[in-house]
Design a protein that fits this description.
about 900 residues, alpha/beta, 8-stranded mixed sheet, 7-stranded mixed sheet, 27 helices, 24 strands
Length: about 900
């Protein structure tokens, strides 16, 4: 498979997943050995006896509702749930009937058994410390697979003595670390894992299973609770170092730093089954937003390996119970999980369910659903509810979850029901608002003590062994070896060449004319008998003339040539957005559709995937109707792909409102907080054409407010050639920062914004453009400075009015501000007596306040404003008012 065809915008990716997933109605074949699937033989149809039917109904009731009666709450503060359907009496049976034998149907085990034994098997499978919620699945094969795992005692063999001792050691490490930190660093916040210590063996066992199955890398996303414990006891970076002043240096490249429980780390982890690389993502306090970012990173890592089914790279997302149920980005992320552009072969979700939600919440106010994991049902993900005080049941849940994911390449969740021994943080007093719950918690022994006592009772360990393990762990705390990262490989992104570089670093973005013509010819090729829509035929005809130099290049053709040139130079291109294939404004047509096709999933052709046999991969795909999760996914993808052009496009510029947390916490601040570089590009359509408040502004002012410490780039190119060079510069320069491009709407087909093919074959992106049309530079007395679409209104009005003493300057890059370039342009006009900043946006929006300061640094000339008055809304919805405001703007700038 060539790289250009990989992850194509077609059905191929999902088809590969489906081919790898035995999800047919027939049960999978039997396998032998521990952890293998146990398949019951073909069972005969039961007789039509009414009591036989009742037995089958009882079995079905336990499969549907057994988890509701399971013993899941470690502290027992919930009222026991009575489910009448689980009682034999509900189905008409008395105690005297328990020894009667019946056909067991699809219940795994003997095909015929006594009602007593049937009931015992059901209680053991569904009513103990592990309850399974899976009957909402519509696929019979998946349900049968889970039933075999849950109902057969042979599938799960009790841990041997070595594993039990390992479990005790893991619990000891988790608990002791928290206690040491609590006493050594009094009053320091750490968001303790106490009450959920079993999460440490859960995660280590999951990594062990993954390593044993050939998984090479895991992307791990989690919030703050337990993060330091994971860092120390799973990944191997000393948690104590975060508290020691002498070892609190910020990560490489970080400028402001961040709190200790937001830090990330990646290294090779040794498990009992071999090494596996674990990347714990840096995480802001905005809960659940790290989830889609991790999945984007995982998708990029799979891309590098041509890992079509996710067998080499795995995503694990850890949730808090209240955040899982409460944050909308969870739903958005789940909704992406099986789509072509965003699938990763299934995620293993773990909810650390402390049964309290957040700081002082009343359980009645945390959610409206019965369980925190109910959101998982929207993608038919099974949920394994497990009691956190039963470590062996937890390991069983891990094994089932991992094998399910690897078999079906689909999401699955573990609901780890535990508690929170301390408050929301170590300075909080939970008894103030939760006295009943915390009386139970304070009387309840930790899981380590409970498990140690159980092992003593069975004679596996002697008295005093558990205490010795505590002493041994304390002695080892300060001797944790320094983590040794493996050398950079094709799978580990190397950002070192981009650190400390300047935005003015040169890049050869021009492309020879003959090569542009060859690429242009490939862009208009379609397969034989491929019927295009008549309007697309017109677009393709125009592009043919553009490639030949007969017509000037419009925006769409310049963009396509930028991608084509990068792809054939070995740089992948990924573009997602809600209408990115065709383009919101009917301008891109990167995906062509055969009008004669008979199926919705056939008859699609992408010229940019068919440029050359050895080209880099190209993906353009229409995303689901989400901004927050999709943008976070693309940010995560770009964090692993410095050599690719990764783009997220908003349908309209201010649709980025829905993803503001991604912009604030990752795009704008990740380098300052965590030293994380990223080259993600954002396309935000922006321009005032009288289309109302929500379809005008990309909120330039918000990005300029966030601009500091060379954190990203903000550009508003005004010609097709400028856009071409800007896109190529983003990849070809030894400089990687997020790029925010305010793209046009009316300029997409504006004749004055078009460019000659020769403009792509020479020069490069210009941060400042002087305006043609002034009669003599020495005679210019007023300079109007602007950015974007409004330039063409100003130029046309100046021409109509014959105002030859007014010069126009375009700022094409707003940040980092091109001060030297602007100063050089201003020096060309020695007779200028004043400067006007003109903008489409209201005075309290747009770039005015930012530019007023920048212009004052560049000149002593008086500076005036020309634009719309202040407004709470980005633009008017009345077309006549829009035209009147534009006329007033032009008068203020030019009169």
């Amino acid at each position: 498979m060539t790289s250009s065809a990989y992850y194509a915008a077609s059905a191929e990716y999902l088809a590969a997943l489906e081919a790898a997933s035995p999800v047919a109605a027939e049960p999978p074949p039997a396998r032998s050995g521990r952890g293998a699937a146990i398949v019951s033989p073909d069972y005969p149809l039961p007789s039509c006896d009414g009591r036989q039917v009742s037995v089958l109904q009882l079995i079905n009731a336990w499969r549907f509702h057994g988890f509701r009666s399971a013993e899941l709450d470690p502290i027992g503060h919930r009222e026991p749930v009575v489910v009448p359907e689980l009682s034999p009496a509900h189905h008409g049976f008395a105690d005297a009937d328990l020894d009667d034998e019946y056909d067991t149907g699809s219940l795994v085990g003997p095909p015929r058994d006594s009602l007593r034994n049937i009931l015992a098997r059901l209680r053991r499978a569904y009513g103990g410390s592990l309850g399974a919620e899976y009957m909402h699945l519509t696929d019979t094969g998946k349900k049968r697979w889970l039933q075999q795992r849950l109902e057969s005692g042979e599938v799960w063999l009790a841990p041997d003595a070595t594993r039990q001792r390992w479990l005790l050691g893991q619990l000891t490490a988790a608990e002791t670390l928290e206690k040491v930190i609590h006493t050594r660093y009094v009053g320091q916040k750490r968001f303790s894992l106490e009450g959920g210590e079993v999460f440490i063996p859960l995660l280590n066992y999951l990594l062990e299973l993954a390593a044993g199955a050939g998984v090479e890398e895991v992307g791990l996303g989690m919030a703050h609770r337990g993060r330091l414990n994971v860092m120390h006891n799973v990944i191997g970076r000393s948690a104590l170092s975060f508290f020691d002043h002498e070892d609190s240096a910020a990560p490489e490249g970080a400028l402001t730093g961040d709190v200790k429980y937001h830090q990330g780390y990646a290294r090779d982890v040794e498990t009992l089954a071999g090494p596996i690389r674990v990347a714990l993502a840096f995480n802001p306090s905005h809960l659940e937003i790290v989830g889609p970012a991790v999945l984007g990173w995982v998708r990029a890592q799979q891309q590098k390996r041509a890992d079509m089914d996710g067998g080499k790279v795995l995503a694990i997302l850890v949730h808090g119970d209240a955040a899982l149920a409460g944050q909308g980005v969870v739903m958005e992320t789940l909704n992406m999980s099986a789509t072509r552009g965003f699938a990763t072969g299934g995620t293993i979700h773990v909810a650390i369910n402390n049964q309290i939600g957040f700081t002082t919440s009343d359980p009645r106010d945390v959610r409206s659903s019965l369980y925190c994991t109910d959101v998982m049902k929207m993608v038919e993900a099974p949920v394994l509810h497990v009691n956190g005080d039963d470590p062996e049941a937890v390991l069983r849940a891990v094994q089932i979850a991992f094998e399910y994911r690897m078999t079906f390449h689909h999401d699955i969740a573990i609901d780890l029901v535990s508690y929170r021994r301390l408050g929301h943080n170590e300075q909080d007093e939970p008894m103030v608002t939760q006295p009943a719950m915390y009386r139970r918690i304070r009387e309840h022994q930790p899981v380590r003590a409970l498990y140690a006592a159980a092992l003593e009772r069975t004679g596996l360990i002697e008295a005093g062994t558990a205490e010795a393990l505590i002493d041994n762990f304390k002695a080892s705390l300060d001797q944790l070896p320094v983590a040794q990262d493996r050398p950079y490989t094709p799978y580990v992104a190397d950002w070192r060449p981009y650190r400390g570089t300047d935005w003015r670093a040169p890049a050869a973005t021009a492309v020879p004319l003959d090569r542009l013509q060859r690429l242009g010819a490939k862009l208009i090729e379609v397969p034989e008998d491929f019927a295009l829509h008549p309007r697309v035929i017109m677009v393709q005809g125009n592009r043919r003339q553009m490639a030949e130099g007969v017509l000037a290049l419009d925006w769409g053709m310049a963009e396509a040539l930028a991608y084509a040139s990068l792809l054939t130079e070995g740089h992948g291109v990924r573009l997602t957005g809600q209408d990115s294939g065709r383009g919101t404004f009917f301008h891109r047509h990167a995906v062509l559709h055969d009008q004669n096709r008979q199926r919705w999933d056939a008859g699609v052709y992408l010229p940019l995937q068919n440029l050359a046999p050895d080209q880099a991969h190209f993906l353009v795909i229409d995303s689901l109707l989400s901004e927050e999760a999709v943008l976070a996914f693309e940010y995560g993808y770009a964090s692993s792909s410095p050599e690719e052009l990764v783009i997220w496009e908003a349908q309209f510029g201010d649709f980025a409102n829905g993803a503001q947390v991604v912009i604030d916490q990752f795009i704008a601040a990740a380098e300052a907080k965590w030293g994380r570089l990223n080259g993600l590009t954002l396309f935000l359509p922006h321009g005032y054409e009288g289309q109302g408040p929500e379809h005008s502004s990309g909120r330039i002012e918000r990005f300029l407010q966030l601009a500091a410490q060379d954190n990203f780039q903000i550009a508003q190119p005004s010609t097709a050639a400028q856009f071409f060079h800007l896109l190529r510069r983003q990849v070809l320069r030894p400089y990687r920062k997020p790029l925010v491009v305010f793209t046009p709407k009316s300029l997409l087909r504006h004749p004055d914004a078009a460019s000659a093919l020769a403009d792509l074959a020479e020069g490069g992106f210009q941060p400042v453009l002087g305006a043609p049309g002034a009669s003599e530079q020495a005679a210019i007395t007023r300079l109007v400075v602007c950015s974007g679409r409004v330039y063409y209104d100003l130029a046309a009005s100046r021409r109509e009015r014959g105002l030859n003493r007014i010069g126009l300057i375009r700022i094409e890059q707003l940040y980092p501000f091109p001060d030297r370039e602007l100063a050089a342009e201003l020096d060309r006009y020695p007779d200028a007596a004043e400067i006007v900043w003109a903008q489409d946006e209201p005075q309290n929006q747009g770039a005015w306040r930012y530019m007023a300061w920048q212009l004052r640094q560049a000149t002593d000339l008086p500076i005036r404003y020309a634009g719309r008055p202040e407004s709470a809304s980005p633009a008017t919805g009345y077309h006549d008012l829009h035209k009147a405001q534009l006329a007033a703007l032009l008068d203020a700038a030019l009169n």
